[in-house]
């Protein structure tokens, strides 16, 4: 049962400066998500580090690298979060993941052509740093603002993330398109430099969080050197009693389904566009549209969720995604791809932000690291359904366009299960507790 003393931690680190410092970490690390994960690494991995290798082999290697990083975090997320809570080390563990992630990202800039194994290992290290730091970053939401502001603050973080990642990405794309104007010998040199710039950006804009976000207090004594044993024992207890947190369990199941649909759209959009014959320039522009539309939209969408209820806000986002899936199955012209990118940008950050803040309302505040570990576990395992379903529908019906229709199943199922959570559970006055 959550107590007033536990909830008191939310008032100790609140304040405008703490909120903005926390939100700017999203600005910092979203550069990795946009420039590295979605932008330059997949292209260089196939064309530079796997030069002379068939596309199927290169994609398989990349798939294994992504899977390895996600699996490490998915399996370790609950333990990492629980340790952070008990030791009062959410921020310190965030940095313990982020700093090696930054270094590995920077080192990618020096990997020579053909060295796919070295590039893979560094990519896994960088991705683990990125994903692990995000886990602790999410958990800090409950300590930088009071519950009544969690929806707005979560939206601010995602909004700044879209803007920051988009700004660096457009700069890196400009350098790759006009390398001589930026002092690079060729496009490959400019693309490699993007990794060093991403690491520098990530490090620089992490400083506000380091300086002005206070470490939440520990929930257990670290004396006697038994913290790990204590944490493992409590984590086993939490897993055993998680069924008593019915609303948490229902929400996580709904989140697992609909965020899988959101993630599949993110991961497969470029491949889908290429399969339909759109030029690479069209896909780059579409990605930029998502980033820059997503900046104000995530903030405004979170505020809309405050006014009409965050659950309804998520429903609106899922409805737009269903529209995107139907339209995406029939698009013919580049302008339609751009229009769909705008629609995604309008709701993508909002669904993510409201999901994070809704979950924060359902869990014990003092154990947010532990519970956000389960949240991140579900997020990492979300890729188990969407991408295979996406591919299977295209194979079964003999046309890649049917792949988009498959995702409607995830959005509808996630929305229906989400409706089983009482709307009152997401309000600022609700008291998270075991049931």
From TrEMBL:
Main location: membrane
Stretches assigned to coiled coil: none
Keyword terms of this UniProt record: Membrane, Transmembrane, Transmembrane helix, Transport
Topology in membrane: Multi-pass membrane protein
SUPFAM superfamilies named in the record: MFS general substrate transporter
Cross-referenced InterPro entries: Atg22-like (IPR024671), ATG22/LtaA_families (IPR050495), MFS_dom (IPR020846), MFS_trans_sf (IPR036259)
Any one annotated GO CC term: endomembrane system
The protein's name: MFS transporter, UMF1 family
Organism of derivation: Microbulbifer donghaiensis
């Amino acid at each position: 049962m959550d107590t007033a003393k536990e909830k008191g931690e939310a008032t100790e680190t609140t304040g405008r400066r703490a909120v903005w410092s926390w939100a700017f970490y999203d600005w910092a690390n979203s550069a990795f998500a946009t420039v590295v994960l979605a932008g330059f690494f997949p292209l260089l991995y196939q064309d530079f580090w796997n030069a002379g290798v068939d596309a199927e082999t290169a994609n398989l290697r990349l798939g294994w690298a992504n899977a390895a990083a996600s699996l490490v975090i998915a399996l370790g997320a609950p333990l990492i979060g629980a340790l952070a809570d008990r030791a009062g080390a959410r921020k310190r563990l965030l940095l313990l993941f982020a700093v090696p992630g930054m270094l590995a990202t920077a080192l990618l800039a020096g990997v020579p052509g053909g060295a796919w194994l070295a590039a893979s290992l560094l990519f896994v290290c960088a991705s683990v740093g990125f994903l692990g730091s995000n886990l602790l970053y999410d958990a800090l939401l409950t300590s930088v603002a009071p519950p009544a502001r969690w929806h707005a603050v979560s939206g601010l973080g995602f909004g700044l993330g879209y803007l920051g990642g988009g700004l660096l990405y457009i700069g890196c794309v400009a350098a790759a398109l006009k390398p001589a104007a930026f002092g690079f010998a060729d496009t490959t040199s400019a693309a490699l430099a993007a990794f060093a710039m991403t690491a520098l950006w990530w490090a620089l804009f992490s400083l506000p969080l380091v300086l002005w976000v206070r470490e939440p207090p520990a929930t257990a004594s670290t004396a006697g050197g038994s913290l790990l044993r204590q944490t493992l024992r409590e984590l086993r207890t939490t897993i055993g009693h998680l069924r008593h947190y019915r609303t948490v369990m229902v929400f996580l199941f709904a989140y697992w389904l609909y965020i899988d649909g959101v993630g599949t759209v993110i991961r497969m959009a470029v491949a889908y566009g290429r399969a339909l014959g759109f030029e690479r320039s069209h896909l780059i522009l579409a990605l930029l549209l998502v980033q820059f539309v997503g900046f104000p939209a995530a903030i405004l969408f979170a505020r809309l969720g405050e006014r009409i209820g965050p659950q309804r806000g998520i429903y609106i986002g899922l409805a737009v995604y269903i529209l995107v899936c139907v339209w995406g199955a029939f698009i013919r012209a580049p302008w339609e791809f751009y229009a769909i990118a705008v629609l995604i940008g309008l709701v993508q950050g909002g669904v993510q932000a409201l999901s994070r803040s809704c979950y924060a309302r359902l869990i014990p505040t003092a154990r947010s690291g532990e519970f956000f570990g389960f949240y991140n576990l579900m997020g990492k395992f979300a890729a188990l359904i969407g991408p295979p379903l996406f591919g299977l529908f295209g194979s079964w019906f003999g046309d890649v366009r049917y792949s988009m229709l498959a995702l409607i199943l995830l959005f509808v199922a996630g929305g229906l299960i989400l409706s089983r959570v009482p709307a009152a559970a997401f309000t600022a006055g609700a008291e998270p507790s075991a049931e």
